[in-house]
Amino acid sequence: MLLSVRAAAAYDLPEETFVLLMVEPPLAGPGYNVREERLVTTQTSLGELRTDLHGNIQRRLLAPRGPFGFTFTATIDADANSPVPPDAPEHPPQEIPAEAMVYTLPSRYCQSDLLYRMARSEFGDLAPGGGRVLAIAEWVRRRVEYRYGTTDAMTSAYDTATERIGVCRDFAHLTIALCRALGVPARYVSAYALGLEPPDFHGHVQVYLGRAWHNVDATYEGVRPVLIPIAVGRDAADVAMTTLWGSGELISQTVEVCEVEG
After folding, report:
1. For 93-238, CATH number?
2. Which of 157, 197, 239, 245 has the fewest other C-beta atoms within 10 Å?
3. Looking at the predicted structure, is the pLDDT value of residue 262 above 70?
4. From residue 201, how far is each of 194, 227, 244 by CA, in Å?
5. What's the angle, vertex CA 35, arms to CA 29 and CA 41, rounded to 5?
6. What is the pLDDT of residues 29-75, one digit of tens each?
7. What top-level class would CATH report for the domain 2-79+241-260?
8. Could you report the per-residue pLDDT of 183-193, keeping only the tens digit for each?
9. CATH 2.60.40.2250 region(s) of the chain?
10. What is the rounded distance in angstroms from the CA atom of residue 24 to the CA atom of residue 39?
């Protein structure tokens, strides 16, 4: 299918500010291809395109004091999202490649070490593999209430396991922490998602099983129609839409993903 993507945001900056912007997906990946894209920002004195340690596309900007904004548009060919195969095998640690090994470790918002006993108690008796990962995602979906605006950027997987409330970011962090506690490499993904309500940047999970990464989304019963990854990381701190070196007020933000005629 063919998707039209648009993301925009506006800020008020009290002083000249260095900005990292991550809204541009890689031009091609498993199941999708970017036909065309365009990024327009407020005029800046620095504009560099680089990749970070996780391979994400990162725009480095030096924005002047005052209003700052961007608009990103793209047309993307995409296949339908595929579910995790229940029979996808887990890997013993000695067979996990170096690029996936970092996603087996605790991180700031995914404290798999603190949730080890919970993971073993709830899922330790299940057969390893894709079926167990799907059981974790279903457990999170049923046990955590989705409520917009109830958590913030400081909420961690441990908090969500305790409070049982959150948004997609929190669902993803808890799913990641439980998977890592059982030795499954799991990473956070920021994405453009078709059919998301309310429209926003979406956070979901990818797990490494059967020598491949598979999408897992605990906020949705079934399989999300299409997920276009923007960036991946240990948790949401690695994939923020914007990171400001200084203070700044977000004035507005919009995200639109829709299917269009070819």
Report:
1. 3.10.620.30
2. 197
3. no
4. 11, 11, 18
5. 95
6. 999 999 999 999 999 999 999 999 999 999 999 999 999 999 999 99
7. mainly beta
8. 999 999 999 99
9. 2-79+241-260
10. 8
